[in-house]
Design a protein that fits this description.
The chain is α+β, with helices and mostly antiparallel strands and about 200 residues long. It is built from 6 helices and 8 strands, in the order H-E-H-E-E-H-E-H-H-E-E-E-H-E. The strands form 4 sheets. It has a two-stranded antiparallel ribbon.
């Protein structure tokens, strides 16, 4: 784990050096079609630059510090690093205004004491939101009559919430983070999404 983390940050440092030398602008962005709305990136972002809009993650480029944590945490590789031209103002539409991120109602912290939450704090907030607003995330259920017992959904689950019982996949709803990866990998569409 340490060597992977070290390699990741060395790679980021080399990428930053390349950007400075090549005068290229890089920007993290979410591919909406690939985003499963799991909120892992939202919880991991140290500066709250990622919010959910219509069930998909959105990165606020003005707040993003280009740390790359979201890219490394996304279980479905829906976050990519794009290269922009050296003069992004020329490429942008003259009246293009990005949609502001949707954030939960919360009091503004004092500017003098404001600091980015840790991943653990963000995860706790996310867990609390899921408990207080159970309708905010879809739920996933295996349809036993359709499940062929192939186990393709078991390994990709980022929290090991899927087990096999009598040859059929079963989702532990208490452990499930509602990321939807299981639904995407099921070859026979035996996993049902309920909004």
């Amino acid at each position: 784990m340490r060597s992977t983390r070290k390699s990741f940050f060395i790679g980021l440092a080399l990428l930053a050096a390349f950007v400075l030398l090549a005068e290229v602008t890089l920007q993290y962005r979410v591919i909406p079609e690939d985003c499963v709305g799991c909120r892992i990136c939202v919880a991991a972002c140290p500066v709250d630059a990622i919010s959910m809009v219509e069930g998909k993650a959105v990165i606020d480029q003005d707040m993003c510090i280009d740390c790359g944590i979201c890219l490394s945490k996304c279980p479905v590789e829906a976050i990519v690093l794009d290269t922009l031209s050296a003069t992004p103002a020329e490429d942008a539409a003259p009246d293009a205004t990005p949609e502001p991120p949707v954030t939960p109602d919360a009091p503004e912290p004092d500017a003098d004491t404001q600091s980015a939450p840790s991943v653990e704090e963000a995860a706790a907030v996310l867990a609390e939101e899921a408990i207080t607003d159970p309708m905010s995330l879809p739920t996933f259920t295996v349809l036993p009559r359709l499940c062929i017992g192939c186990e393709r959904c078991v390994a990709p689950c980022p929290v090991q919430a899927i087990t096999m019982v009598e040859g059929k996949a079963v989702i532990d709803q208490e452990a499930c983070i509602n990321c939807g990866i299981c639904e995407r990998v099921c070859p026979v569409k035996a996993i049902e999404r309920t909004e």
